[in-house]
Structures are given as C-alpha cells and as structure tokens.
C-alpha cells in the first residue's frame, strides 16, 4: 500500500506570495491533518479534515487554510507569506477516529525569502 | 489546558544500554498517548500508542512504553539501545473528551554512542 505523499517536497517563495501544498493520503484513509514543524516551536497542529469537512483547527491565523476533496486528497494554502512561515509542513492521514494511528508524509520544506 | 512535556532536549546512551525517553502530560480525562520517531529529512513514523487496557504497551523496533496514570507519564523505553535508534522522538497526547486535538511535545533527540 502506498504511503502518504506530499507535493512538492521543496518550495521557495518570497514574502507576500501565496502557496498551495498538496497531500494524498493512504488509500482508505478519510482523515487528513496538517502540521507545521519549526526548530523553535516544534510540531504545531494546523487543522484536520474528515470527509471534506474541517473537524478541528489549531491556533493559526486565517492566512492558513485548507480543504479536502471527495477522494480524501487535501490541500493547504498559505496566503501573504511571511518569513516566519518558513517550515516543514507535514501531512498525516488516518482511517477515521481518534484512536487510529496517524501516518505521516515526508513533508514539504517551505522557505520564504 | 492540555499539554505534553518532554523534559529532556537530548539523551545520550551507550549502545547496548537501556534507554528511557521521558514524557509527561496534562489532560482532564483519559488521554490517548502516542510516540513517534523522526529520522533526518523524513516525516514522523509511528512507534506505539496507549488507548486503554494494559499499561505496558509494546511497539515497533523493540520499543515499549508504560502508561502511569498517577504520575501522568508515558515514558518510552528500550532494553538495549542500537546506534540506529539515534533520532528525534516525539510524545503526543489526544484528549477525546475535550477538543480531540493532538498535541505534540517538543521532541527529545536521542544519541546512541557506539
């Protein structure tokens, strides 16, 4: 079974631009979560989608948004990029419920110049 | 507010010795607890989880963890460390009775010395 895939793997943008990251979950998984990982803040939860609905949301500004499609694939969008948005963005999928194991993708390394 | 703490930024252990990576948590009810490992330039890999039942949980690569409700801890252990265990380890907690968000600790870097 294929794992979680994320595209692109690396991205360089400049301040003020916007970016869209993509995540394809493991086949059969209906929940997709996004995390931001930085050296200073560690792993921070962004949001979780389940069956095309946002089920949970972290404490990030409205510039961070996401969506999930009917095939469970998910996208994350960051508008008006700031230098502090430079991070590794990780996507994780799981079957459905809270007791399930999350499986992580390799991440997208975003650098904002 | 729910939280999870990994009190040690780094742990050094000689190969062959037992290792412990500490994790304590603070949630209002009965938590779900997880351990993940991250190798350089890779995403997180699941090691083990505690949902309910036996307090001693066995996971991947010979790791185990013990859920201690009175001490609100979930320490990760391995009887004999390997150099290949060197990585960044994350403890995570989920409170299904509250907002059900998963909260990660800051991570502990484990160095196994040959």
User: pLDDT under 50 segments of chain A (min length 5)?
Assistant: none
- What proportion of the residues of chain B form beta strands (DSSP E)? over 45%
Got a strand count of chain A?
11
Instruction: Give, in order, the helices and strands of chain A.
Output: EEEEEEEEEEE
Number of helices of chain B: 0
How far apart lie the N and C ends of chain A?
Answer: 37 Å
List the helices and strands and how they pair.
The complex is a heterodimer of chains A (113) and B (114).
Chain A: E1 5-7, E2 10-13, E3 19-24, E4 31-38, E5 42-50, E6 53-57, E7 64-68, E8 74-78, E9 87-94, E10 103-104, E11 108-112
Parallel strand pairs in A: 2-11
Antiparallel strand pairs in A: 1-3, 3-8, 4-5, 4-9, 5-6, 7-8, 9-10, 9-11
Chain B: E1 3-5, E2 10-14, E3 19-21, E4 24-26, E5 32-38, E6 44-50, E7 56-58, E8 64-68, E9 73-78, E10 87-94, E11 102-104, E12 108-113
Task: Give the key terms.
heterodimer, A: 113 residues, seven-stranded mixed beta sheet, 0% helix, B: 114 residues, mainly beta, six-stranded mixed beta sheet, four-stranded antiparallel beta sheet, 12 strands
Could you explain how this protein is built, in words?
The complex is a heterodimer of chains A (113) and B (114). Chain A is 0% helix and 53% strand. With 113 residues, chain A is mainly beta. The mean pLDDT of chain A is 94. The model of chain B has no long low-confidence stretch (mean pLDDT 92). Chain B has 114 residues and is mostly beta strands. Chain B is globular, with a radius of gyration of 14 Å. Classes of the chains: A mainly beta (113), B mainly beta (114). The interface between A and B is medium-sized, with 22 and 23 residues.
